[in-house]
């Protein structure tokens, strides 16, 4: 029996898809929200240090299924199949809420210059650095809507580098932990401008959800009291409450369906019983993340789009980038660990822009609580990786080490890309994503600079020994993946227009971080939320004018 036709079919129930579902459903459109993963609760996710969104050696607690979802990675070692728990897969959570179910929940607005990188810095050798077709002023009201509707805590009043905002954050910051108290005076002595991290995490009861209980099992885990904000506990329930939205989990989308004229008529997907279903719709909105959104478009072939939907000029899947995360760690001669989550609490934005000879930069903040297994990544290079000396260092240093790190704004690269592999298919017979490319060398220059600033902060704070960690040149993806369906005004150098609609098809939209032209020197989720609100508003305006109906 054919499924009932709907106005909007949304593929992906993460940050972008959740917001779009709520906005369209509350406007009266009938919506089906497809999600390949499950709808988890905290009860489904035990506190296992070895199985969370950050340490995946035993598999991914939040998907995708390990044995059904291979990818192909091409790097200096050649090419080979990688699985979700392996390095290089560039995994993002696959569940209702997506990464927002288990993320760190930092809630940053991008700066005005982050939307004007090419105008600010000019061409960067080997890079496709470009301006966004929209600016900060276009997103500002939607940043505010996201902060208030979803709930953000913190105090950014001392961030003198932020762009104009009309209101402060709706919740106060979490109370300072010990690292905050150590780092605050040191930053001020250096002449910097520290402030409380903005977080999608309740510091007080907000919108019917409890306040954070400050446990150590936070980032990478499910929140037991729903204090951490995600689409799974805010906008998606709101969409369902309208009666206009249906969420279907365990559904793997194969392709977008196109009619003889190349307009979308819905999508074909495999349901939880592996039966192929066809859902027709007036609109199709792709919200799968930068890797999977590009994969879905490339796997949608038609006589008018033989190389994939939206890919007439070979831009779908290009410019895959995320964030390079340089860090510095400092060993103190007293305990700095107080077991108060989430750990990350204080930040500076003094080095996002204006660094001599560098095209951008990134914010710096102390890191989230590092569980014992994760602390292995903090062991300095002069300490053996195993044996008695290693154990002695960890016992001594675990409660006496502070880490500062930050997301460097990467230079996008044309050849850093997602393709579909010609041979390897997933469990359902769908060609898998093929990842290839490297970072731009200038990204690593910026990383070395910001790591030096992080180390200087720790030294000023009294660390008796410090060390840096600089990532290598390999491709970035993971939870901050972006860029593969770039937004722009010229169809020859972008995939979607400034409203996130495909240049080639009136009724297909891409609304997630894959449309980001650049990724800012910040965690991107608040910008994903804000742009989803903005794009939904523009979509509804077009809908009322009958410009996007199939």
Description:
It is built from nine helices and 20 strands. By secondary structure, it is an alpha+beta fold. It has one domain: FAD/NAD(P)-binding domain, CATH 3.50.50. The protein is globular.
Give the helix/strand layout:
Layout: E1 6-11, H1 15-26, E2 31-34, E3 71-75, E4 78-82, H2 117-121, H3 136-151, E5 153-155, H4 178-189, E6 195-199, H5 235-241, E7 245-248, E8 252-258, E9 264-270, E10 276-286, H6 290-298, E11 323-324, E12 327-331, E13 346-348, E14 364-366, H7 388-397, E15 401-405, E16 408-409, E17 417-425, E18 431-436, H8 441-460, E19 465-469, E20 508-510, H9 525-544
Parallel strand pairs: 1-2, 1-10, 2-7, 3-18, 10-20
Antiparallel strand pairs: 3-4, 5-6, 6-13, 8-9, 9-10, 11-16, 12-15, 12-19, 13-14, 14-15, 17-18
Helix pairs in contact: 1-5, 1-9, 3-9
Record keyword descriptors for this entry.
7-stranded mixed β-sheet; 7-stranded antiparallel β-sheet; alpha+beta; about 20% helix; FAD/NAD(P)-binding domain
Low-pLDDT runs of 5+ residues are none
Known CATH architecture: 3-Layer(bba) Sandwich
**Shape designation:** globular
**Beta-strand content bin:** 15-25%
| Secondary-structure element series | EHEEEHHEHEHEEEEHEEEEHEEEEHEEH
Radius of gyration: 22 Å
Q: What is the top-level CATH class?
A: Alpha Beta
| Mean pLDDT over all positions | 96
Short recap of the structure:
This protein is of the alpha+beta class.
